[in-house]
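Please, structure for the following, as tokens.
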Amino acid sequence: MNGLGVLERAGQLARSGEAFALATVVWRQGPSSSKQGSRAIITSRGEMHGWIGGACAEPVVIREAKQVMADGNARLLLLGSPGQFGTAVPEGMTVVPISCQSEGALEVFIEPVLPVPHLVIVGSSPMARTLADLARALDWLTDLVSPQDFTADSAGPRTMILVATQGHGDEDMIERAAAVRPAYLGLVASRRRGEAVLGYLAERGVPADQLDRVHAPAGLDLGKTTHEEMAVAILAELVQLRASGELGRGMPMARSVPSVASPVDPVDPVCGMAGDAAFSSSHGGATYYFCCASCRCSFEENPDAYVKAVLR
């Protein structure tokens, strides 16, 4: 896959709501198997589609792409042999030494492409329409659906659902929406009305862990407001919860990244590059992974020296 094929695949992943990173070669120094303008997609599972470079560059780019997706910050990498660039490294660029025997080098720009928030508003009141317009102004994927059209297929674990049915079937809508276990579920109602709805559903046997996730009433408490101000208050709460990372597990938020010593993302103790399961060696009851056979040989000649360096 290359050229337009990479961009087409990026569009498919974006429409499916899957997070990925787009890596682009912006500069190269030969000899290198890559070309300026080469692109690749790295998925959240660490799969690469496209071409960035050979065995030295690929595992490093995958490792860095995972970090980019985790923290949401793009980065510019300079890949080359240790000491190759000296002090001629621009500020803000991340230097990643690679131990390939060639003298080639690459600059690779990696940018995260995270799913946009998905908001489903159940209802047709003026407030619901205003909220939909505001959310779309933020480029959120927003669906305004009637109670008759809302089903479990309308949402998923990444979705924020707002029930704004104005007392017409609130209980049924909340029960349906809670079963989806969305990232956020809010009910537009007074506090007393919200307590009544949740109490009724508890008596019907709806699991407490589902009902505990319901925000009733939805939105920040701004006191007596117009329907336009209520829409702003609800959107403000959603923005606040997203920014603080308090929404459900399915939302595209910053997540923890495996330690570099983790077998999920092993690092070669000899050169610091990403390790490969094809090149491994055991020492002291632990398994170490290497980028190539030569690094493995260096380790096996004096394993204690490299283990101490890793632990230091």
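The chain has three domains: 4-113, 118-244, 258-312. The chain has a mean pLDDT of 83.
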